[in-house]
Amino acid sequence: MRDPSATLLALALALSGGPATGATGAKGSAQASTTRATEPLTVFAAASLSDVFQEMALHLGSTSETPTIRFNLAGSQQLATQLEHGAKADVFASADQRWMDVAIEKGRIDGAPRTFVHNRLAVIVPASNPAKLQTLANLARPGIKLILAADSVPIGRYSQVLLANLSQRLECGPDFGAKTLANVVSREDNVKAIVSKVALAEADAGIVYGSDITPTNRDRLRSLEIPADANVLASYPIAVVQGSDQLEQARAFCDFVCSPAGQAIFARHGFTPIANAATPAAN
Amino acid sequence: MTARRDTLSSLAWRVGLALGGTGLLLLLGLPLAALALRVRPTELITRLADPFVLDALRLSLLTSLGATVLVTLVGLPVAYLLATRAFPGKRWLEVLVDLPMVLPPTVSGLALLLALGRSGWAGRSLDAFGISLPFTTAAVVLAQAFMAAPFFVATVRAGFSSIDPRLIEAAVALRASEAYLFRRVVLPLALPSLLAGVVLAWARALGEFGATITFAGNLPGVTQTMPLAVYIAMQSDLEAAIVLSVLLLLGSGALLYALRSALPLFQPGAGAGWFFGPSRRRS
Prior knowledge:
Chain A folds into 2 domains: 4-118 and 235-276, D-Maltodextrin-Binding Protein, domain 2 (3-Layer(aba) Sandwich), CATH 3.40.190; 119-224, Periplasmic binding protein-like II (D-Maltodextrin-Binding Protein, domain 2, 3-Layer(aba) Sandwich), CATH 3.40.190. Helices cover 35% and strands 21% of the residues of chain A. Chain A contains 10 helices and 9 strands. In chain A, strands 1, 2, 3, 4, 5, 6, 7, 8 and 9 form a 9-stranded mixed β-sheet that branches. The longest helix of chain A is centred in the first third of the chain and has 14 residues, at 50-63. Chain B has 283 residues and is mainly α. Chain B has a single domain, classed as MetI-like fold (Orthogonal Bundle). Chain B has 13 helices and no strands. The A-B interface holds A 8, 11-12, 15-18, 20, 75, 77-78, 81, 128, 130, 145, 147, 150, 152-153, 184-189, 197, 200-203 and B 104, 106-107, 109-110, 113-114, 117-119, 132, 134-135, 210, 213-214, 216-220, 222-224, 231-232, 234-236, 238.
């Protein structure tokens, strides 16, 4: 049994969304391995990367001479806007190409970004399943409380693609997308806020990434199966930020997340490693 | 010698006042001026026709007025009791009423969700009657009222407390009932602070963000008030966010300016509580 107050705190942080979720660093742990006094490496990362990047920071801290890694975790759209306005960072990891393109366009990216991991979408319902949802087609039933993200958030855009894909299918019907969108009760600003509200059973369902079902919330959530050919393959690009004064370390971080060791950590966290992505990316 | 020292210390006093004053003026004035001067008036007017802005504006006015009415109805008796009675647990009540002022709004929102959410303490009973508060406009009103109540109670209570006790004594000596006393003596004398309380509560409700997005979510036309619209717009369309911010700034500024101008028109009996500093008690 976990400490309930810790769970509440985590929920509070996630619910607050935005910058409040960010800045949770993996300080200290990574510092012990080296005596070099370097500036911490600042990584701007999509909210969906929270858990997996924290683990990577621990992993890096115990094996190499990487400096302390400091994360700014928020919706990719927020990170891109912060970069646009001159936020100082070393690495940017976005949950979709759109916001990486914005960062490039604003001259904040050094070199070319590379896709480092993929993710599938998941339709989550509270473990208690208050609306008794059994299939995806049920999402269109009037009165369902569905939470999506705002269109500016990568998961919000991916969710629209998923709903469009499902509308093509016989079991859902052509008006599935419109009826389901009519059930949306909130547009959150990052994917973790959706997870928290569904885990609290305040909504009947939410569309998130497969990797958002974690050991911490697994007993509070269930997921509805999405047919593989209707699912969306989210692609995450990573790049070094223009003006980083730790180019070498920033590149090393990008290399690590793409390396077999990094990819293995992603796979453990429910992401789809780059080598395994079968269907084309939807952007 | 002493005279000279006096001149010196008086000079130091003036320099200190000027420096402090300038510092605060810059701290508060610079950012607000930077915001206000970013938008051309014509752009402000064209943007007002944007449904995104219009919906948020309409919803903000509606909910903040609702919250103000609610706070006035439930806050007035509490302010009166706190000002006139001693009772066991009074200190606890005072702390309870102060708390929303110091708690991070997100924490307040989470508390509301855990109490009034459909799987929350009280929410579960409401759910049995088919009432579900989260993600509704009513939830926005509750979140705003929660955050605005302390401002109303503190202001009005101070107004009640600063009434010249001899006036009360005189009325009591004339065998006025307490209800009569309240209606004909206390309320008219405390009118300026009542007005100040109402306007402060309104302004606070208008600016509410954290508790709203946590408890009521974010859906245009239903729960997306102006501050939420600013936050969401800021993540992708900064210009829209600036326009919305300027509208909020102008609205709140006008509200407070009108309050300060209108108050002296009321008879100068009881001061408007802590909003105007200690009142001049006539002796």
